[in-house]
Every structure is written in C-alpha cells, then in structure tokens.
Amino acid sequence: MMRTRPLKVALLGCGVVGSEVARIMTTHTHDLTARIGAPVELAGIAVRRPDRVRQGVPAELITTDATALVKRGDIDVVVEVIGGIEPVRTLITTAFEHGASVVSANKALLAADGATLHAAAVKAGVDLYYEAAVAGAIPLIRPLRESLAGDKVNRVLGIVNGTTNFILDRMDSTGAGYSEALDEATALGYAEADPTADVEGFDAAAKAAILAGIAFHTRVTIGDVHREGLTEVTAADIASAKRMGCTVKLLAICDRSADGKSVTARVHPAMIPLSHPLASVREAYNAVFVEADAAGQLMFYGPGAGGSPTASAVLGDLVAACRNKLAGTTGAGESAYTRLPVSPMGEVVTRYHISLDVADKPGVLAQVATVFAEHDVSIDTVRQQSRDRGADGVAADGTGGVREGGEASLVVVTHRAPDAALSATVEALRKLDTVRGVASIMRVEGE
Amino acid sequence: MMRTRPLKVALLGCGVVGSEVARIMTTHTHDLTARIGAPVELAGIAVRRPDRVRQGVPAELITTDATALVKRGDIDVVVEVIGGIEPVRTLITTAFEHGASVVSANKALLAADGATLHAAAVKAGVDLYYEAAVAGAIPLIRPLRESLAGDKVNRVLGIVNGTTNFILDRMDSTGAGYSEALDEATALGYAEADPTADVEGFDAAAKAAILAGIAFHTRVTIGDVHREGLTEVTAADIASAKRMGCTVKLLAICDRSADGKSVTARVHPAMIPLSHPLASVREAYNAVFVEADAAGQLMFYGPGAGGSPTASAVLGDLVAACRNKLAGTTGAGESAYTRLPVSPMGEVVTRYHISLDVADKPGVLAQVATVFAEHDVSIDTVRQQSRDRGADGVAADGTGGVREGGEASLVVVTHRAPDAALSATVEALRKLDTVRGVASIMRVEGE
C-alpha cells in the first residue's frame, strides 16, 4: 500500500512560518510518511532574498523563481506562506493549472477573492486548504466545514487577533491607555512596526469574512464586513466596562439573522461580561465561540499566531492534501449553496452602552429618555451620577463621574435594537443642549 | 455533478440520540443534500421496542431486525447509536461486509476493540467514524486525527464526563458531600439511575483510551487505562483543594513519556489550580486540553452529552461518510504506526497532595520527612496545623485542622515523582505510630 515515489511539495515563502514548515518537514519525515501513506519531499522553496541565512533550511532547494517552481509539473502540493494578494493569486492559480493542490495561510487573499480560488481548484480537480489563515493552530475551518456539516451554525463570536487582545488585556490589567499598551505590544514583538492591519481591524475582518462564509455556507468577502478598530478605545471605556462587570474585547461576530434570510459579519470592540469564557482569554491568545442548533455552544481556544502554531495548521492541511492526492480524490471544498446575502451593519441587532456628559440639572434624564423613545430604542438601565452621588471617585480619572461646573454623567445601557436606530439615537443625543458630550459608546455582546 | 439516486442510511437504535438524528435527517434534507452532493435518505431504523411512540420518526421505517437491515445490501451508511459491545460489534462488522460505512457513538466498543473494527473497515474499503463517542458535540477526534496530523501531540488533559463534572461542581460551589451532590445530579437528569459507569470512571476511561490511541498514533484499550472514580472524594478534599487555590476535577489524562518511548492513560480525580482554564468548566460541560509540539496548548469546550449535541457529531460524520461514498474513497482511518506501549500507573510522574492526621508532638515532621526521603520523593510544601495555630477554623468541619486529644494535621504537597514511589510513601506513612490516619490523598495536575 505504501508507494515509493515521494509526494513533492513546493514552499512559497520562507519567513517565520515557512522556515518552521521546512524544518518540521525535513526532521519529521518518518511521522509524515506514516501519516500520509507515502514519503513526502520538499522539492523547492521560493524566496525573495536567497542570501538570507535560514537555519535548518536546505540551501540547494532555494530559488527566487516562484513561477517556475509552481510550473514544474511534478509538484503535488504547493504551500503558500507569502501573504498578500498579488503575485500570490496568480501563483496559486498557476499551481492549480499544473495539477498541484494548494495549502495557504493567506487570510487577505481568501477574504478578498476566495470564490475565484475555490472555482479554480474545482476546475483543476485539486484541493485548496487554508486552516492556518484563521486563528493559527486552532482547528476552526475543518470543524466548521466537516464536524458541523450536519448542523446549522447560527453564530460565530471570537477573538481572532492576538495583537489587539494583548493591547486590550494590558489596558484592562494595568489601566494603561491605548498608546502605552501598543508601545508595550510592539516592544514585546506582539505588534508589528506598522500595526494598522491589526489595530484597525483589517486582519480580524478578513478572518470574519472567511468564518462567516464557511459557517453559513455562503460567500462573504472582507468588503462585506463592518469594521471598527480599537484605536479609539480609551482607559475610560475600559474603566466603564469594569464598573458594569465587563471587559472590552475586539470581537469578530458572524450572525445568521433571526429570519434566517441573511447574514452579517462585523469586527468591533465590545463589552462582554466577565462571566463569559471569552473574557478570560488573556494576552495574545485567540478563542472562538460557535453556536449551532444541535451542538449548542462550542469554544475553540489556543495560540492565534506565531511560526510554530501556524506551521502546525499548515502541516495538518498538507497531510490532508497529500492523502487526497494519493487516493486520487479531493476533500470537502467550498460550500456556498445558501447564497445568503450579507446585511449592512445598520440591520444588525445589538445593544449599546452609552456614557454621556450632561448638565447637572432636573429634567435631563427625561429629555434623554425621550430621544431614546423617539427612535424606538428601549432602555435597559440608567446610571446617573451627580455631584452628590459622585462618591466612587471616578471623576478624578476622567472616566465620567462628576465634573466641575454643574456636569454629571449619565450611563445608559439599551435593550437590543437595530444598530441604525442606536446610532441615530446617539446622533440625536449629541444635538441636545443638555448633553455636553458623548464620552463613550460601545456595543455589549455575549450576554 | 449531483446524482439523483439517494444515499441510503440505516439507523441502529432510536433513543435520545437516534430520534434526534432521525428528526434532523428528515427535516434538514435540503441542507444535507447540498452539503453531501446527493440526496440522503433514511432507509430503516432498527429498534428493540417497535411500539414505543417516537415523535417525528417515520413509523414505516421501524424494524426489530437489525441484522436484516445491515444485510440489505443497498445501505451506504449505518449509524449505530445502540451502545454496548454485543450485538453491536457483530452488526457493525456485518454492515462492513455488506459495503456500508459506519458512524458510531459507541465509546465502550471502540475503547474495547477499536482495532478489530478498524481492520474490518479497511478490509471492506469503507469508513468507520466515531466523533460522537468522545465529548458529544465537541470536535475532538477529527481535529486530533486531521488538523494535528502534521504535529506531535504530547498530552491530552480533559474533563470528558459531564455527570461527574456536575457532581464535583456542586460539591465545590455548595460544600455538599458526594452522596448529596449525586442525588441532585440524579434528580436533574445529569446522572443515570445506575451511575456506576460515570462515577467509577468507566465512561471517562473509555474516552481516554480512544483519545490516547488517536493522539499518539498507537493502540490503547480501556484495559490499559488506570481508573479511579470520584466516589471517595469528600467535602474535606474539596475544602482542602480550595485552601490551595485549587478545585477538584475528574480528569482523563493521556501522556507521552518524556523519552517518547511509551504512553500512559489514566482517569482520576485531581486538584487543578483555579487559574487553569479547566477549573472554570462548570456543570455538565466538557473541555479538553491538547498540548502539541508546534501548536502549543489548544482547548476544545462544549456540551459533552445529550441528544442534540451527540446527534450533531453523528451527522457531521454521516456527511463525511456520504461524501466519501460518492467520491469512491475513504477518509483518514486508524493510525497506529508508532506501536508505543502503554506504561502502568506506577511509572506515571505525578504530584501528590497528602493530608495526614498526626500526633501533635515534636519530631513528627522529621519522621514524616524521613519517610519521603527514603522513597526519593521530594517535598514541595508542608503545612502543619497544631492546636496553637489552628485559627482558620477548619477543625470544626473535619477537614483536617486541630483535633481534640493532641492531634494535628500535616498537609504535604510533593514535587513530581513516579506514582509508585508516591504510593509506597503513603503506605509507609500509614505505618508510622505518630500518623493517626491519612485524611486525603489527591494528585495535583495542570500546573
């Protein structure tokens, strides 16, 4: 049953993840052979800078010509860990045309144009796997696509970006502001020199698009995902969350609508109760909740990034792609038959926590409550702090307690309402004379 | 690409899980057809009591002749949710011989004789899937077998029995004794009328055997698993754990030995620190930690039992088995190439928390410490409570504080040592004149 001609693998990219993939492939040959059912061989590694020293990576395999490598014709599986849209998309489709299956860690490409890649893979009769594109080593795509294939997923709610979780965790545990926490994350290697993709939520939005598409058997691209980063989260927001028994997390949230006729995908900071399992996800860890009709609530937790964890996910996919090559078949591919449309953020039903600086005089609450009522937004709780009751010392740290000059703070938590109605309510509140400012707005999730 | 002849499924057993499988199969036909790539049809349901009312289960499909059903010859997949060893083993092998793949939720059979079943499936060229056999809806077997196929798993540590977790959670949160907590679990439906399989650890041991075999690519049967139930866990043990900042859980633990040349599998109550994610797994939930070389620490959490969650896992496997049937292939089967032997419990390296009732006189600690040294067991911490220092009020509840008549309590936590050495140490301690009794022994894990 064991064939002797080895399966040939081409590696595109040899950075942190790629070099770990190469290292494991060249040192764990016995295990990989046994698990695949045939030997597997690293046949070439395409890099941009061939002179860079790469510990444990066979120098004779290095090439700068990625296109020639994927066109060789004897490659069974191409592993792509370069990232970005082009030239990677062209390399992957070229690999398909030459009969290779592809294992990719490329969330940006999959979230931008997964449909094109899936169609090209189907046409070529090969596999496209990308477990490593979402949440590093945590098995998520395979469980969603295969383990839950007989179930109906209604919600995916997760922390899928380690950098922002590290920043928020520091803000929560030390009281630091955003900039200070970002500096620490950068110094410790958790944030890149240009942290935009992480802190503005682009990375999480790409993952949300991929997860929503798979979970709901439809197509979702990053352009469909409502995205808010965490650059505007303040120490005051975190303190305010604490007073509510909550913490702030940057969440990726994919929902099937109540009528089942549409889906939504969004990334934004949100308060979640400390009792929610996601609240205790610390540092750069990731965790994803999945809610399904029959399965109930499942959670998947682990390291969401890093060379070794990402390599683990890549190698799992590599073994699967190699097994399929041997069996002359392909695994479960794209499933987008529901064709459910993606609704805009305004239609998402959510809850707001709103902290207002208001004039400290009678009638303010009535005015504010009227604005909520006019927008059909129902209020869950109101907390009012005038000078007389400002005993909890929150004013001193600027988190919304009593101010000099007759101000008070009003903290309103709403019931669930369409996001458009909540957002219109906030705009109307800003126009009230008695409202001096909106100190903080944040959605509340996970209850 | 869509074929019109439906895939035919035979269901063996129609209790809590089976009726939910039947219900979903008959109501979610559109989704199942789309995900499989062909229609799937329930062709027969074998039951023992045909007259029982089964809501939503087509009566015309009911038969009492399970053997005839699996021998029909037109069945593509047999779903087995009867449980137990015989007649199920014979039914499954007969199904294989007649060309059907099998999806089973039968942990007892898989843990007793998985090798025979796997060999029969390979011989027949069909699939044997059993995600539902371990931890209900939580995807564990597929992630271990496929997602981590390129990694090296070193440890699996989990709460895999909901009944015992419910009992321990109640004991921890209410201070109840074992019997009282068991009564509550029974009243609420979390424990069966005969709770032996759960509380004596047989159920968890079967799951440990299955997980160890898959995680370490070897064969482990339930007979290889060291098993201690929780019937001897007392309120005093729980209180003692609390004083150490721990809680008590019934854990299934599968380890690869430090030299990589053997594995161990065991089920027993253990103290784990409150900071460990498993400590916060409440009620009847399950959660499993997996530690792998490259992936690091992963956790999988969710409902570990119940009709719907188990049906979710069964249906995920059913979709996979049907897809493979259509493609004319089989999925990843047994991988037992490492042939690693299973070491006995005595060779497991662990830590003990030992609570002794001792005479309250000088020299006792020296005597006790000598016994530990003679067995090459190193002491981590000792806490001694004589009458003078018995201020924390633990004596009143019998949890090991100061007693009348010149007794004191001595709580010793060891460093890691072979279980045989720890156990021999306890036996030697019992023989000391100054040791009046061993109030509690428990292993400490998860640090």
Automatic annotation (TrEMBL), chains A, B:
Which EC number(s) does the record attach to this protein? 1.1.1.3
Q: Which Pfam families match?
A: ACT, Homoserine_dh, NAD_binding_3
Q: Which UniProt keywords apply?
A: Amino-acid biosynthesis, Methionine biosynthesis, NADP, Oxidoreductase, Sodium, Threonine biosynthesis
Associated pathway: Amino-acid biosynthesis; L-threonine biosynthesis; L-threonine from L-aspartate: step 3/5; Amino-acid biosynthesis; L-methionine biosynthesis via de novo pathway; L-homoserine from L-aspartate: step 3/3
Give the catalysed reaction(s), semicolon-separated: L-homoserine + NADP(+) = L-aspartate 4-semialdehyde + NADPH + H(+); L-homoserine + NAD(+) = L-aspartate 4-semialdehyde + NADH + H(+)
Task: List cofactor names only.
Answer: a metal cation
Look up keyword rRNA processing and say if it applies.
no
Give the ACT domain ranges: 353-443
The family assignment reads: Belongs to the homoserine dehydrogenase family.
Function, as annotated: Catalyzes the conversion of L-aspartate-beta-semialdehyde (L-Asa) to L-homoserine (L-Hse), the third step in the biosynthesis of threonine and methionine from aspartate.
**Protein name as annotated:** Homoserine dehydrogenase
- Species per Swiss-Prot/TrEMBL record: Streptantibioticus parmotrematis
